[in-house]
Amino acid sequence: MDKTWISKERDSLDYEIGVEEFLIYAQENSKDPKRIPCPCARCANFKQFSVNIIRGHIYENGFSLGYVNWIWHGENDIGTTRSSVGSTPLPTLVPNFDTNIDVDISETVNVCEAAYKSYDYDNESFEFRRFVADAQQPLFEGSDYTKLESMLKLHNWKARFGISDTAFSDLLSSIGSFLPKDNVMPANSYEAKKILSNLGLEYIKFHSCPNDCILYRGIYADESECPKCHLSRWKVGKDGKVRVNIPAKVMWYFPIIPRFRRMFKSATTAELMTWHANQRQQDGKMRHPADSPSWRNIDYRWPGFGNEPRNLRLALAADGINPHNNGLVNRYTCWPVVLVIYNLPPWLCMKRKFMMLTILVSGPHEPGNNLDIYLQPMIDDLKKLWEDGEPNVYDAFSKSYFTLKAILMWTVNDFPAYGNLSGCVNKGYFCCPICGDDTVAKYLGHSRKMSYQGHRRYLGKFHPYRRQKAAFNGQQDFSDARPPLSGQEVLAQQEAIEFSFGKEVKKSKKVQSPWKKKSIFFELEYWKFHHVRHCLDVMHIEKNVCDNIIGTLLNMRFKSKDSVASRLDMVDMGVRHDLDPGVTHTLKPDFESYVVNRLIEGGYNRIYLMPHNQHVHWILIMIWDGDIYIMNPLPHPRNFSEVENRLSSALESYNAQTGRQKRTPRVVNLLGCPKQPGGIECGYVVMRYMRDIISDTEMAFQSKWAAKTRRSYTMDVLEEVRLETLEFIENFM
Length: 733
Prior knowledge:
The chain is α+β, with helices and mostly antiparallel strands.
């Protein structure tokens, strides 16, 4: 029977004819026309329906592209072997990168196929045959769920909410009593774990020092306290007693070598592992890492490794996440480390199914520069895979054994994680990864941040921008760009760095080098020969850089970087004087006499509100009943000593003139006043202060704002003030 219609468009005539012929064929060969396995991409022959429902599923979800031998619909199994979960899962009909096909299969199928796929097993796969039988066994007669699928969902729920084994056993017993008598639900937690054991999801728990000094492995495996900081290996209770056998901090390592072996037990996956050599379209365009110079460098430098297409090329990604995601524990962070396999086609290598969680470092604090100690177990396995390889790995596609080797090509991360993994300084005067100690950096006093310049060095020798002065830093730039350091040069510089792991208090000292430690990746023999060792992910470059550029160019509210502080910094640098905002930050010489005259004119019992711009920041000063009140919208305290001293001097002069020499003015900082939210200008907050004080008939703001409540105004409240200000200006104009 013709099956080419499976890969055609769903609205084509050939597809429609093919669907009807298939349904007629399936109905003729079925035992029960109302219970036919549905071959759509979503059901994957797991669920059974009538012909009419199957027809709708095929048009809605598409026909499972890998299901080319219709063994579940009466076709004889000639020359092929039945899939372990109902169909051969991954499409091999995809011709090239430009064909974007995403097969949506049930979660159980994904888990089963990621662990094993039955095509041709070696002698070690006998235990998994029983696992496949359990995976296909329905929970009870007529159930839409299999035994394995039910266990995976329940175990996921157990892990998510931290349910104990005793409670989980009680739950399984209760669920089993509600189901029909022929159900195969495990009776307790032990039996449930035994079912999932053949998935091969084993892991190793390593205890670590709470200060990230060491892992308790190797020579430290039997230690009970850290030999460096002398903290206990075990948790210490609130009563000060050590809870033996309850580790203070743990990391989980998921061994990579058994998982690599397991991938080649599937004929479909084993074939895809050689896609880069056998099926990749080679036309000089960059479609896959195999088209990059870094890939060709590996093939050229180590031809023995490159000649075996089944050898793995890997990438590593690491970053901190907050698994709670509830806003209440927003400071908690744990660090997962994920490996990506580049042997696969580009439409599969970044799928969740093939992204391997390798390391999980528990929180609540990030390891920072001490991340290297947690990478050590994985580095040891990578060294073994490079130097000796893993022998006797069974390839189910070629039905042969081979020695598997692997190489780590680069890491993918954001800029802070880049500093932790590479050992590069990522802030301050030497933070440029390319320029290093030749970085052109300047601290901006008004913006209170670093500015990195000298980019004209990377332009062409005769580019007109090199001769311009006023548009840049007031100087011409004809210098040459520094070439990026090679891996050998980086290693030579990092070996001179003295660094000790742990979180003990380090003496602050001036940074003299662009490196802060020797990266653990240089323990890999090949790492220093890579052209590219670390990559920055596109998401952060798009979000952080492009958002700021577009927001400034379009003058978008709350997103533009064109602020008074930035303009003042340019004036201090001697460039763009036409953008001088003309803001003064010092009080006028006649400030005291001005305040005294206002007090004499208005009287002693009035309230005087004085908005003041202090170093490009608005605050509100209020004089009431002979005292000075200062309201600062920033969440952290600031020094306003100049304003306080001159106002106190003015009030003392006024008291002397009005016969109140014994009255000493107080200066009260109302620390509990509402603070400005992120992205809101402080001027609007000061205007809201004035409105609240004026509308407070009982003058209770002093007691209300005295406590350190740290609350903030809402956006709606500040927007109301802004609109009132605009209305006033329009009426005034």
